[in-house]
Amino acid sequence: MLTANDSEVDLDLIVHGRRMLTPDIVALDLRANDGALLPSWSPGAHVEMNLANGLSRQYSLCGDPTDRQTWTVAVLREPSSRGGSGYIHDKLPTGTSVKSRGPRNNFPLEPASAYRFVAGGIGITPMLPMIRAAETSGTPWTLLYGGRSLETMAFRDELARYGDKVTFHPQDTHGLLDLATELANPAPGAAVYSCGPEPLLAAIESFCESTWPADALHVERFRADLPDLANARPIEVELAQSGMTLTVPSDRSILEVLTDAGVMVDASCEEGTCGTCEVVVLEGIPEHHDVVLTESERESGECMMICVSRAKGSCLKLDL
Where exactly are the transmembrane stretches of this chain (predicted)? Predict the structure, then answer.
């Protein structure tokens, strides 16, 4: 039986059920192939799905953390899909086996006096367990939920049960989200949690910078801010444990160079979103491009995601 803890484990799952939430969003209910209990998880966690086409993708768990039999994910079919969301929509019918790894939580719900949740599109998925947790604990909360149209916004029936705590804001009839109203008058000890497309998160960060305490805002991004390799420069990477020193060309990642040199590092998404390839930095200043580390973790320079991040200087010393 799988152990009930928050550490990552490799899992053989089966698609127990699937349903279309909107024309472009499918929900999958996943269970262990052998019927065993799944690892426990907390709101904000995600699971990595290792697809038969060779791709790995991370999706937020949006079901009930107390249900140890089933994990639920919801996947948007991306128009510019590189094979991940399209494969899940087209190639994972009920009964299909899928290898997975998890859970991992880079977006935990921290204690607060109140919560203001802001979701854009498929960014509603990590918000759902957070909302349930806030409701159960009696912590005051509101949700501002935006989407292209009402028809594209998943989980409407579930969220409608919360009454006026939830504001649906479809762009085709209501325009852009009214952040000035939603984020005005921050209460002491309150927190803002947001997930959605980059323009929304950038706007929220800009607004909160001048009106909310520095540690009040928590965001989860879909994609990392990848480095502009056209303007990158080669760097030297020293590996403290092996004694190797490797040159990382401007057009390659640290992870790629280490892998070619036979240095085994756990990795998954290779896009700076999952946190699997985190490495301790002993010397040098990382240039961070992931979406996993908090601002304080970035400033400390003690670790980095070597799949996308580089160096501000010419060299780094890593604990490898």
Answer: none
Domain end: 198, 220, 242, which one?
Answer: 220
**Number of helices followed by number of strands (H, E) in the chain:** 8, 18
- Residue 292 CA to residue 284 CA, distance in Å, equals 20
CA dihedral 214, 216, 221, 227 (to 10 degrees): 10
Burial group, residue 96, by CB count within 10 angstroms (0-12, 13-18, 19+): middle
CB neighbours of 267 closer than 8 A, spacing ≥ 6?
255, 259, 276, 277, 307
Same domain as 95, residue 17: yes
What is the domain extent for residue 242? 229-318
Are 127 and 216 in a shared domain?
Answer: yes
* Amino acid (one-letter) located at 129: P
User: Is residue 1 assigned to a domain?
Assistant: no
pTM equals 0.79
Token match 């601002």: residue? 295
Going residue by residue through the chain (320 aa), what tens digit of pLDDT does each one get? 233 334 578 899 999 999 999 999 999 999 999 999 999 999 999 999 988 888 888 899 999 999 999 999 999 998 766 678 999 999 999 999 999 998 999 899 999 999 999 999 999 999 999 999 999 999 999 999 999 999 999 999 999 999 999 999 999 999 999 898 889 989 999 999 999 998 999 999 999 988 999 899 999 987 666 666 666 789 999 999 999 999 999 889 999 999 999 998 888 778 887 788 999 999 999 999 888 887 788 889 999 999 999 999 999 999 99
Q: In whole angstroms, how far apart are CA 245 and each of 234, 241, 263, 301?
A: 13, 11, 12, 20
Of the residues 45, 75, 104, which one is the last residue of a structural domain?
Answer: 104
* CA dist., res. 62 & res. 186, Å (int): 27
**Does 2 map to a domain?**
no
Residue 142 within any structural domain of the chain: yes
Residues 6+ apart with CB under 8 A from 260: none
Joined tokens for residue 7: 């550490």
8 A C-beta contact, residue 278 and residue 303: yes
